[in-house]
């Protein structure tokens, strides 16, 4: 497999990005103070209950999906898709073309490791894909040609980003020409297939 060497680092990286959930929430909630005036009695089933806490690191998918430019707030890493291009063409080399019946699309991604995280985090383009309405996924290309896609290029080989630093760059995807891309997705596509975040485009 072409990315087998990355498997030991996937769980650590994706946990930093918020893939494994956040810290345990305090489930205890104080009851509201008694009213100074008499109130009608209620049965146990009618008693007010504390609302459930929202996990701040829950996946940003479905009704929590993000828009381009919005941040996925992971425990250790903040991820943004800052720009999306639905059609890309090499400006000077006509030989850099996608496969027959396909086209290039591109996304510019920024991942920053929080200073408070205290350890480096791995970034690499294989954690990203674009998705269509029917559930099709198209992974980021694992190779590049000089200045294509536009500079800077997102790391295509795993790179350790230190706390307080960022990795920023473009990545390239090949999709069928007639496909309407709807999301840029970030997740564990070579592990359990889970999606941590998606940006609507």
Secondary structure layout:
Elements: H1 7-16, E1 66-67, E2 71-73, E3 77-88, E4 102-113, E5 121-123, E6 128-132, E7 137-139, E8 159-161, E9 166-176, E10 181-187, E11 195-200
Parallel strand pairs: 1-11
Antiparallel strand pairs: 2-3, 3-4, 4-9, 5-8, 6-7, 6-10, 10-11
Structural notes for this entry:
- The chain is mainly beta.
- About 5% of the residues lie in helices and about 35% in strands.
- The chain is built from one helix and eleven strands; from the N terminus they run αβββββββββββ.
- It has one helix spanning about 5-15; strands at about 65, 70-75, 75-90, 100-115, 120-125, 130, 135-140, 160, 165-175, 180-185, 195-200.
- A hairpin with a 3-residue loop joins strand 2 (about 70-75) and strand 3 (about 75-90).
- The protein is globular.
- The protein starts with 6 loop residues before the first helix and ends with a strand.
């Amino acid at each position: 497999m072409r990315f087998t060497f990355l498997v030991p680092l996937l769980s650590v990286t994706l946990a930093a990005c918020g893939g494994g959930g956040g810290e345990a929430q305090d489930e205890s909630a104080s009851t509201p103070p008694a009213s100074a005036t008499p109130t009608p009695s209620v049965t146990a089933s009618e008693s007010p209950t504390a609302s459930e806490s929202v996990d701040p690191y829950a996946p940003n998918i479905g009704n929590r999906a993000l828009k381009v430019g919005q941040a996925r707030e992971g425990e250790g890493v903040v991820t943004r898709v800052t720009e999306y291009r639905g059609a890309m063409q090499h400006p000077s080399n006509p030989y850099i073309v996608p496969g027959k019946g396909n086209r290039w699309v591109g996304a510019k991604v920024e991942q920053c490791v929080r200073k408070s995280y205290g350890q480096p985090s791995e970034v690499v383009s294989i954690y990203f894909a674009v998705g269509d309405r029917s559930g099709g996924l198209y992974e980021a290309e694992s190779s590049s040609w000089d200045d294509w896609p536009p500079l800077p290029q997102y790391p295509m080989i795993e790179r350790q980003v230190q706390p307080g630093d960022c990795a920023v760059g473009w990545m390239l995807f090949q999709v069928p020409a007639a496909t309407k891309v709807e999301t840029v997705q970030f997740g564990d596509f070579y592990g359990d297939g889970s999606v941590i975040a998606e940006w609507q485009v």
